[in-house]
Every structure is written in structure tokens, then in C-alpha cells.
Amino acid sequence: MRRDNWAEGLAEYLAEAAKRTFEQGQFDCGHFVADAVFTMTGVDHYGEFRGKYQSVRGYMSLLAGLGYASVEEYLDDNFERHGALATVRRGDIVMRIEGELEALGICDGRQSLFINVDGGLASVPTMACMAGWRVD
User: Fold this and answer.
1) Which of 42, 53, 113, 119 could make an SS bond with 59 (beta carbons 3.0 to 4.6 A apart)?
2) CB 92 within 8 A of CB 135
3) CATH number of the domain that residue 43 is part of
4) What pLDDT shows up at residue 99?
5) For residue 38, which of 88, 102, 30, 114 has the smallest C-alpha distance?
6) What does the DSSP assignment read for 36-88?
7) How far, in Å, CA of 60 to CA of 73, rounded?
């Protein structure tokens, strides 16, 4: 369940995240989204991943060890998937394909925010994402 002040907390978190630099295993899309969810709900869905990988291969190995073939499968098992992108709301998790990788972001209304590997956050139209999951 989202905290009463989730919107203010999310805005503060996103402002701070925009100042950070991408670092695989420390501040990547998984950490970005998990920290946003924690800020809004107080629940850490990423404890089993924190500090345990330093590469995409390491991350995927952890997922496989938990019985998941993909990030999408993990999200489907832990969050409710939106039936349509039009129902995604601010604070929900979104996914898009970037190259051959699944990139996770946070919906901020009509735009969704993703970590930019060159620093800061990149804004992408929410309707350009491939899927979204409800954060309650």
C-alpha cells in the first residue's frame, strides 16, 4: 500500500536520482525502480538482489536462481500487470526494450523516467513503453 505522502516522497526521490550516475549493481534500473517503490510503500522488493551482482549476467543469474527467466516474469509474479498502458499511473513500474535489454522505469504521468547510462534520468512517453505494473 502506498504511504499517505507517497507523491511528495516520489518527487524528492526522483530529484535525487536525477543527480546520480548509472553504475551496474549499485544504481541501475533495478535499484532505481526498487528504491522508488520503497519510497512510496516502505517495502523493499530488492533485498535479495542488493550487493549481489555487478553485471547484467550476474543479475540474470540471480533471477534464474530465484526461478525467473526474465525481469518481466519476476514483475508479473510480484506486482499486478496493467492490462493496458493507458491505465498506468504516476509511481507505477514501466518497462521498455532498450537494445536487447529490458529497461525498467517509473511512470511520472504522460512521461516515464529511466536511468540514462550517461547520467541523470531520461524521459520517455509512457505510451511508448511495452508494459506497466501497479504499485499499490
Assistant:
1) 53
2) yes
3) 3.90.1720.10
4) 85
5) 30
6) HHHHHHS--TTTTTTTS-SSHHHHHHHHHHTT-SSHHHHHHHHSEEPSSGGG-
7) 12
Quick check: is 19 in a domain? yes
Q: Tell me, yes or no, whether 1 lies in a domain.
A: no
Mapped onto helix, strand or coil, the DSSP state of residue 115 is strand
Other Cβ atoms closer than 10 A to 9 = 19
Evaluate whether residue 49 is within a structural domain. yes
Tell me the residue range of the domain where 129 lies: 6-134
The answer to whether 9 touches 40, Cβ cutoff 8 Å, is yes
Q: What pLDDT was estimated at residue 98?
A: 85
The rounded distance, in Å, linking the Cα atoms of 74 and 30 is: 11
| Owner of C-alpha cell 504499485 | 135
Closest CA to 93 of 77, 110, 75: 75
Q: pLDDT tens string for the chain (136 positions)?
A: 999 999 999 999 999 999 999 999 999 999 999 999 999 999 999 999 999 999 999 999 999 999 999 999 999 999 999 999 999 999 999 999 988 888 999 999 999 999 999 999 999 999 999 999 999 9
